[in-house]
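User: I'm preparing a small set of examples for a lab meeting where we compare how different chains pack in three dimensions. I only have the primary sequence for this one, and I'd like the structure in token form so I can line it up with the others. Please keep the answer compact; I'll paste it straight into my notes.
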Amino acid sequence: MKVVGISFLALVALAEAGLPKPEVLIGISVGEDQSGTLGGIEPRIKWSNSGEVAGVDVSGGVDLTITDVDAPPVTSVWGKLKKTISGYGDVSIRGDMDVNAPDTVDLDVRASAFGTDVQLVGQAGTKSVTLSKVQVTKDISTIGGTLTLTPKYDLGSSKGDIRLGYAMDGTSFQLDAQSKKLTVAHSFSDRDTIVPTVNLAGDVSLSYSRNLDKGRITTTYTPNDSVKVQWSDGVYETTFKAPLDGYYKTNQGIKVNMKRTVGMM
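Assistant: Understood. Below is the structure token output for the 265-residue chain.
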């Protein structure tokens, strides 16, 4: 029954504003470990739409990826309901279902009010509903900036975590207690941002991003590991990753991943 309900939400959203054109992405990977009969080619079709039903925002869609012509495509169906309560905030619920494993629906419930966001993540099966993660985010205005507290608890591993963030004048700091990682981001202008990251083990990375007239390019340098360049312009999305040592070896060489959005007639 739950699976039928989630699928119905997606179909309602698609029908509400008419059938939209699907988004088709063609992915090509070079240098990656490939599986399946298509090798490095990965066609993906995304189809979604949104509308309003009885004062509730409804959206839904289908995501289909083909990796092997001898196996069913990886297909997921999702639906989302969102209600805005005037003077208070928003409440939403989203369900994602793997068509090849239809007995379980992944659920994401969110509520936002008075500067506080609550997220509940779990699964709904044919016989039970389980809660796997609880997360709360609170923004606190302080002198000169905004302090963000994000405690969360994983019920599966019985482990808690907290993330602290602070932002002011184009600079933000984020400290993750579980991964023991500090990330600092500073925007020099509307186009340029630099992001150094360091953890307690001494691992360091440095990322530089620049907004282009059409798209964005990001370069990430990880000492003793690799250099990665990501470029996107709304149509193409390309990633180059080159190791700093062993680039001449087959299993450690330069890896290229490119995706292109194909327009539909």
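A couple of notes for your slides: The chain is about 5% helix and 65% strand. The longest helix spans residues 2-16.

User: Perfect, thanks.
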